[in-house]
Amino acid sequence: MEYRKLGNTELELSTITHGAFAIGGNMWGGNEKQDSINSIHASLDHGVTSIDTAPFYGFGLSEEMIGEAIKGKDRSKIQLLTKFGLVWDGSNNGKGEFFFDAEDDGKVIPVYKFASKENIIKEVEESLQRLDTDYIDLLQLHWPDNTTAICETMEAMELLIQQGKIRAAGVSNYSIEQMEEANRTLKLASNQVSYSMLNRTIENDLVPYSLENNSGLIVYSPMERGLLTGKYFKDNKLKDNDHRNGYFSQFDLNKVKAFLEKIEPIAQEKGASLSQLVLRWTTLQPAITVVLAGARNAEQAIDNAKAMNINLSQEELSFINTALSDI
């Protein structure tokens, strides 16, 4: 495993970081608790020291299971990354910006983006309790809230740093303009954004910005929620309540399948899975600090961690990039 310093902070994160969205269960067709906990243990056993979660994942369940999974382990060797700013319990009293309707056991739950100082303080206390810890290594705004001034959100995170409740502050899904405005109040450690072989838009703006400003880039959905593992094309049976039924429709699936068939021989030659090859390619792209990889069981977690064992030559990278141009 490689470990990389996050932006201007002293935080060192594992390049492959355990992404804990799926183990929350909601939007992913449910979860098996012991499998989820085993996936965290397997990640830690194979060099992954960083875990990224959010209160919204499973409406608190993801954080709770992480807290249970790391109980009794050396906390100083684990980096917990969580978020704030998506409210689903009605505590915002109608304030904030309506985002979407989530579903939980057939019940529709309105979700709001809300990043006020009062809400941040409240959410952090709840996350600390669920994670069973007294500090968060990296706290991130989950999505921009257009109803709250950015300076108010940043001032709240600065206060939490001073109180020792968080070690560093970051954001997620921010534009360059939002990053610049935030940095006038508080120097951000990172921006967490979507990035994959099929979604490279950040290479036009956020990548050069991050390189110029020593800002960390944490990327999610590197495998496009499992599409780039190739498994979907071999057994495409998803549960009816799995959000990926709609998510995958944005891609030209025939072209994606053809691309994976082109690069699979590289993986086979290295004794690796397609998902490992995809993850390793992602870690080698400019400015990318951390790649989030989801795992719902120990086998997937180990597979993700071992992606860092793959060596890719410049010629192999060029071949992959050329094949990508056909999608």
From TrEMBL:
Coiled-coil region list: 114-141
Pfam families found in the cross-reference section: Aldo_ket_red
Domain called NADP-dependent oxidoreductase: residue spans: 17-321
GO MF terms held by the record: oxidoreductase activity
Annotated protein name in UniProt: Aldo/keto reductase
Keywords, alphabetical: Coiled coil, Oxidoreductase
Superkingdom assignment: Bacteria
GO cellular component labels: cytosol
Organism: Chryseobacterium bernardetii
SUPFAM superfamilies assigned to the protein according to its UniProt record, in alphabetical order: NAD(P)-linked oxidoreductase
